Each structure stands twice: as C-alpha cells, then as structure tokens.
Amino acid sequence: MFTTDQCKCNCFFNEHYLILWSFFQRICHEFKERENNELKENPEELSTDMIIQKSESIIYKASWMEQFHALLWRSFLSNIREPMITRIKFSQTLTVALLLGIVYWRQQLDQKGIMNINGAIFILIINLTFMNVFSVINTFCSELPIFLREYNNGMYRVDVYFLAKMFSELPYQIIFPTILVALLYYMVI
Fold first, then answer.
1. Quick one: which of 70, 85, 58 has its CA closest to 154?
2. Which of 78, 115, 155, 165 is the most buried (most CB within 10 A)?
3. Alpha helices per DSSP H over the chain
4. Distance CA 183, CA 26 (A)
5. Sequence ranges of the domains in the chain
6. Which of 31, 44, 180, 63 is nearest to 120 (CA)?
C-alpha cells in the first residue's frame, strides 16, 4: 500500500496511484509487444524438441509382450548396475527408522501414548509416500531424453515403458518399506 511519504510529486495520493498504475501498464504492454516481435522474427523458437506430435499411428515391430520383456530386463540390469542407489535407499530407511524409533521409543498404551503412536504412523506414511514419489520422479527425469529418442524411433509404447519401470522398482518398493515398518513397530510399541 502506498503512503503519502512515498508520493514524490506534489499531487494527491489517488493521482500518484494512477500515474504509477499507468506506468506499470505501459511496461507490461511494451514487454508483450517486444516478445511478440521477437517470436515473429524467429518462428523456429516456437517449436520445441519436447513436444511430440504424430498424426499417423505407429506400427511396432515387436509385440506388446516382447517390448515389456525387453524393457523389464533392461530396467532390472540398470538397477543392478547401480548398487550405490540401493545402498542409499537402505541407509535412508535405517536412518529414518532409527530417528523415528528414538523419538517414539516404547510408547505406553494409554491415551497420550496412543496419540504419539498415531503421530508416528502419520510421519511414517508421509515418509514412505515421499520416498516412493522422489524415486519415481528421479527415474523419469534422468531417463527422459533416452525415452523420447527411443519412443520417437518407434521402439516401444509409453505404457510398456511405464509398466516395465514400475515392475523393476517393485522389489525396492516392497522390501525397504517393510524393513522400515518392522523396525519402527518394534521400537515404538
């Protein structure tokens, strides 16, 4: 909000406000005009590599099952070749379990203890959700250029790629949460 101290001209506050408003409007209008002129001069900037538009349907050389098998095998090999990610996920699981276990150590089964156990369960669910979300986000962001190149070449379908990645991550999505829940259960209750 403007005050009379900010008004440098010898005018009323509402006049000062209108002057500033018209100044901001003129800046916005000039910016839009300059941006439109730049796009008219360089129309190749309108197209991006990330937009995929194909009008014809793609005929794949391999069946759905063959694509799935090949992508699943490649995803499993990719997971095996990166043991550091497995170690990081395991250490993250142990760290979270120990921290939550120390905070909620051996709760009594009275009203206060049950409220604390509910808090531990809430934090556990939030942590498990974010662990899974971040692993999926990191996977797809790092492999996006490869995926786009191979998809544009007609090597496989999007649904096959997605399902193969999810099935290859399934052991991690089952084992690490099970370890976390088991450790936390015996530390809290």
1. 58
2. 165
3. 13-41, 64-80, 83-103, 111-142, 144-152, 158-188
4. 63
5. 13-46, 64-188
6. 180
